[in-house]
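Hi,

I'm pasting everything inline rather than attaching a file, because the server keeps stripping attachments. The sequence lines come first, and each chain or strand is labelled.
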Amino acid sequence: MNDQFRSPAADTLHAARLDRLAEIAVRVGLGLKAGQEVVITAPIEALPLVRRITEHAYKAGSSLVTTLFSDEESTLLRFQHAKDDTFDNATGWLYDGMAAAYKSGAARLAIVGDDPSLLAKQDTDKVSRANRARSKAYRPALDLIVGFDINWTIVSAATPAWAKAVFPEVSEAVAVAKLWDAIFAASRADLDDPIGAWNTHNANLHARTKLLNAKSYATLHFRGPGTDLRVGLADDHEWNGGSSRAKNGVVCNANIPTEEVFTTPHKDRVDGFVRSTKPLSYQGTLIQDIEVKFENGRIVESRARTGEAVLNKVLETDEGSRRLGEVALVPNSSPISQSGLLFLNTLFDENASSHIALGQAYSKCIRNGGSMSEQELAAKGANTSLIHIDWMIGSSEVDVDGVTAEGEAEPLMRRGEWVTQ
Amino acid sequence: MNDQFRSPAADTLHAARLDRLAEIAVRVGLGLKAGQEVVITAPIEALPLVRRITEHAYKAGSSLVTTLFSDEESTLLRFQHAKDDTFDNATGWLYDGMAAAYKSGAARLAIVGDDPSLLAKQDTDKVSRANRARSKAYRPALDLIVGFDINWTIVSAATPAWAKAVFPEVSEAVAVAKLWDAIFAASRADLDDPIGAWNTHNANLHARTKLLNAKSYATLHFRGPGTDLRVGLADDHEWNGGSSRAKNGVVCNANIPTEEVFTTPHKDRVDGFVRSTKPLSYQGTLIQDIEVKFENGRIVESRARTGEAVLNKVLETDEGSRRLGEVALVPNSSPISQSGLLFLNTLFDENASSHIALGQAYSKCIRNGGSMSEQELAAKGANTSLIHIDWMIGSSEVDVDGVTAEGEAEPLMRRGEWVTQ
Ligand SMILES: [Zn+2]
Ligand SMILES: [Zn+2]
Ligand SMILES: [Zn+2]
Ligand SMILES: [Zn+2]
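And the predicted assembly:
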């Protein structure tokens, strides 16, 4: 078989699905309002998707669409050639400009397709200094995003480097085509009525969060091979999932795809042990078979079959990096899980399985959390950290109970699936 | 012959010249100082040149290199699909960000490769509204550039659309290769010691401006077929050419290539008639065989063999658009002129021949003009306008005299060449 060959029919199908993904991004992801400006960030390889999104955004009445392209090769050239004393710099002027755009009403669309190991071989000190400078400079703009002041979304594009990491055994062209097909399927862009399918999917996720919010469990209890973990939930925690209304009044789906319902654990009330069920791809390192033990919310023991040193470095980031900021439930029958792929990208992998996240909690997962101070949030049990790293703990062998304040256990998931539909 | 075929040797040569052009852009164009941030703007097709420039900038000690890529196809999608009431918008937040970068010490590198007729078929009202909004939003950043507060440069890259416009008779691949070769030659990137060649070239241009400044002519007198034009020069005019020192102290070459020495005419002292010697490419229209008559600095009659309507619309922009803002001398033996190509791009075409520009004057072409108010500059004779459009009036058939304050004519150019070397 000739790897380079794609039939005209395959090209037509790809173009149609790319256009559908663009429509999903604009209508479902952003929920774009007429007259709204759009700021897109994208890897340069995502140009064809950027153009489809640009057209759909203008058709939906966008006042102006601007794309800020990034080039990973240029990023790499920095680490290879810049002088050692320059790595504490970041483009504050650009991030400030983006924050100004959001404040004046712009929506935010991120296209991701990162090479999972771009900086794996670069000097870790330079990388962490550059990351820190970037995080600091980006903070004012990022606060408007994670605080949901504006409608935003993240979608993905199959770039050659990412595709080769997911499908190392085939040619680049085949890998890219396979990854696109996986993205289209996970994002429901392979369906004839993707907008209708997303409406149904959002309704299902909303029904699930409504049920869980009505229960208001004190604790989730995970049991499976290597796992017996009690995750206490924050006081006044709220479950979220699917579309949500930003503070600017626009209903958006922040992640395309999304399969999870999630909430905030109590930072001091996590106990027991847990084993990861899928590898975690973190900045070029694959961390496999994580096993940790929690006491009073804090990780007191940790090991991993591969990447243990990186894991332990992550845990030392700050006080909050040893505690949980998120717990999420995803059935094992989710389309992403069923694909059997490890995407090496959180946007996909966290939607393949129930998961927990080390680090920062989401204020919107606390009732009225959006208007609370950091102290008020902490008093409810919400964790604070510079990191937020999701890792997978669900599988077809894992059961989950919801435990009421009275200590009564109710079955939520059995063998990885919801007990009630 | 197979158009698509390029030999490995041709590829190697192209890569070497691209790298040399990048080195010229960084070392000659920007004169980059260690620790300086660099802001690049580039068409997305210029990615290979952007990467070479990025590497050279980091090697020269740049603190951070950021490229803002533009995509002409996305621009076109705006004019095709955006609602009619949106064309007065511009990305003020991005231009303000760029201005902030320049104010904090960044250098500015523009890569141009525009499709000369990208918007030729679009609604002229939408185009002019978008241009006006963009000009207004860009003004604060542009002022720092044209006022030479910072070091900056413009270089070019052969994009497919531009290449096909210059070489319509060959395939796209051949056209791009031919245009690259022309760019390399005009930019001296085809030489073994391009930096040395640029040093010599700058020294020659400086010697020429020194001579002309010492003469301080009252008037330039152009004579040739269809031309008998007296261009009075502004009081305290200064000739410029080649590299110059920006207000931040850095010596840069603002245009790569550059062959001209130029100064400011007196806006009220231009008389006679003049015929263009090369076509003018203006926003997708080719304006050929322009013939205009000046009285007291003002164009009182105008016609053109093609594009006359566009020319007359340009002349109606504002009061200053009928008067001159620049006069420049370029010998007919300049490498760009000798290539015999019409580049459909001012960066090249204005360096092929002596030229005049309708519209805005450069304050740096008036002695101490950088610190003068607009009124002070106008009192010296410097013109003001929203436009600055260069068009070619030199050729091997045109003679130029310098006329002293006492009315004595001295031969400057004969048959298009300098009389003194
Ligand atoms: Zn999650
Ligand atoms: Zn998460
Ligand atoms: Zn000029
Ligand atoms: Zn000019």
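The radius of gyration of chain B is 21 Å.

If the labels don't parse on your end, tell me and I'll reformat.
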